[in-house]
Description:
Blueprint: H1 16-56, H2 68-97
Helix pairs in contact: 1-2
Amino acid sequence: MTDRPGENRPAPFFGLGADLKALAGAIGWLAGAMSGVVALMYAVGFLCAKSHLYMLGIETHSGVPAGAYVEIGAKFFYITLCGRLWSGWRGGLEARSGGGLASPLA
Length: 106
């Protein structure tokens, strides 16, 4: 045994502190990214729900629970993304075949 720190520890545990810091940093980064995505979905869901109620003329009475805004925002992004992907794919097929294809959202 020597008096220098780090040489008395077994080899598998020598870099454990750096590994734990890297793991904690990765978990922190993922948590921050997830909270940003959820905040974006909540904001878009709130705007979608409020604009829908405004168009119906009942904006003073909101029948939407606060937890549903995230789901509404997620549906908006899902439908928008599927529509964009399907339009790009369908446009390429129609140019080659000349026929029309049904949308998966219909």
